[in-house]
UniProtKB/TrEMBL annotation:
It catalyses: guanosine(46) in tRNA + S-adenosyl-L-methionine = N(7)-methylguanosine(46) in tRNA + S-adenosyl-L-homocysteine. Pathway: tRNA modification; N(7)-methylguanine-tRNA biosynthesis. It comes from the Bacteria. This is tRNA (guanine-N(7)-)-methyltransferase. S-adenosyl-L-methionine binds at E100, D125, D152, D175. Coiled coil: none annotated. Its EC number is 2.1.1.33. One of its GO terms (cellular component) is tRNA methyltransferase complex. Pfam families: Methyltransf_4. Belongs to the class I-like SAM-binding methyltransferase superfamily. TrmB family. Catalyzes the formation of N(7)-methylguanine at position 46 (m7G46) in tRNA. GO terms for molecular function: tRNA (guanine(46)-N7)-methyltransferase activity.
Length: 293
């Protein structure tokens, strides 16, 4: 299927709250989507830490809002850190499940789900319009192998997923945090990989892609140095873009401008010890997040 198959059509926006649209004035404390994702699912249950993501506020279309209201109870997951989830129960089947962290508006995720219906995709983001758009695409295209997670993927990995429950991890075009003082916010760090290793099955693939070359170099360095992962490339370098990762519209525009996109494909090695939680995991000690990072 082409990428355009998974691009939601533009929707006319209501001119005013009196035209029968979903927009209305909410009372103080009233949730934005009563049956949809929570604004802060983990609340104050967990310590503050240096986050690798920055929530973006943007307009939610009527179609996205409708999908959030209708489909969140069926296909949505608020990452509250208060329970361990059974992926077979979540997906209603024993599909192998890959975790995708950060999916934008969801077109590439929907295309991958359509082309590989025998794999479940647990797609996590904090961008409400993207969550609604992906749910809309899944519904419109009959994609029952997608679940949408709302919240912090670190809390999901650390608190809610069972050891060796995932068949893969996908991190496509994460925030590069280009300023030197912000590099500690980048997701792909040794401590993060140690946590990920405990949740991946032996042989599972970690697939990263970025168009920011300094970040690609850091990814390659930390993945190559980590004892629980091995590069799938014999030369120890970057991988060609695999067929299962769609070439997105925005990536194509970047390539036309001469941007370099690097893919990294690493495998979780077999020798992980029998007690996977012995690995150091991030956030075991509270860390105060400064305003400027």
């Amino acid at each position: 299927m082409s990428e355009s198959s998974f691009t939601a059509p533009e929707e006319p926006q209501p001119a005013s709250p009196t035209d029968g649209s979903l927009r209305h004035t909410r009372a103080k404390g009233e949730p934005r989507f009563p049956d949809g994702p929570k604004a802060d699912p983990a609340g104050s249950h967990f310590e503050r830490r240096i986050r690798s993501f920055q929530p973006r506020r943007s307009r939610v279309t009527a179609g996205q809002a409708d999908a959030l209201q209708r489909l969140w109870p069926k296909w949505g997951l608020d990452i509250d850190g208060q329970r361990t989830i059974d992926l077979a129960e979540l997906f209603g089947s024993d599909l192998p499940v890959v975790l995708e962290i950060g999916f934008g508006m969801g077109e590439a995720t929907a295309q991958m789900a359509a082309e590989d219906p025998e794999t479940g995709i647990l797609a996590v983001d904090v961008h409400t319009p993207g969550q609604g758009n992906l749910l809309n695409l899944a519904d419109r295209n009959g994609l029952s192998n997608i679940r949408v997670g709302n919240g912090d993927a670190i809390i999901l990995l650390r608190e809610m997923l069972q050891p060796e429950s995932l068949s893969g991890l996908r991190v496509y075009f994460p925030d590069p945090w280009p300023k030197k003082r912000h590099r500690k916010r980048r997701l792909i760090q040794p401590e993060f990989l140690s946590l990920v290793a405990t949740r991946l099955k032996p042989g599972a693939l970690v697939h990263c892609a970025t168009d920011w070359e300094p970040y690609a170099e850091q990814m390659l360095e930390v993945l190559s140095a980590h004892p629980d992962f091995e590069n799938t490339q014999p030369d120890g370098g970057y991988a060609p873009r695999p067929d299962f990762r769609p070439l997105t519209r925005f990536e194509g525009q970047g390539l036309d401008k001469g941007h370099v996109v690097n893919d990294l494909l690493f495998r979780r090695v077999q020798h992980l010890v029998d007690h996977p939680d012995q690995h150091q995991q991030p956030d075991q000690k509270p860390e105060q997040q400064s305003v400027d990072g």
